[in-house]
Design goal:
Largest sheet: 4 strands, antiparallel
Low-confidence stretches: none
Number of strands: 6
Order of helices and strands: EEEEEEH
Shape: elongated
Structural class: mainly beta
Helix content: under 10%
Number of helices: 1
Strand order of the largest sheet: 1-2-3-4
Length: about 60
């Protein structure tokens, strides 16, 4: 599964990269670990496999794997 990245958003903690995804907001995030120049922390948003949207629960497992 491939993703199309939209414009990178620079935050004070690092980079927020929104990815095109149908159904819910999905992003890849990257920042320095503990402020060190040679250690990075990469995580996704959402961080859990279940996304709540209105009265529904969406399974984000395929996108996160």
């Amino acid at each position: 599964m491939g993703f199309v990245a939209n414009d990178i958003v620079m935050e004070d903690w690092g980079c927020y990269i929104p990815l095109e995804n149908k159904g819910f907001a999905f992003a890849l995030c990257c920042g320095h670990q503990y402020g060190d120049d040679d250690q990075f922390l990469i995580f996704t948003e959402p961080q859990t496999p279940k996304v709540r949207k209105f009265l529904r629960v969406i399974d984000a497992t395929p996108q996160l794997t």
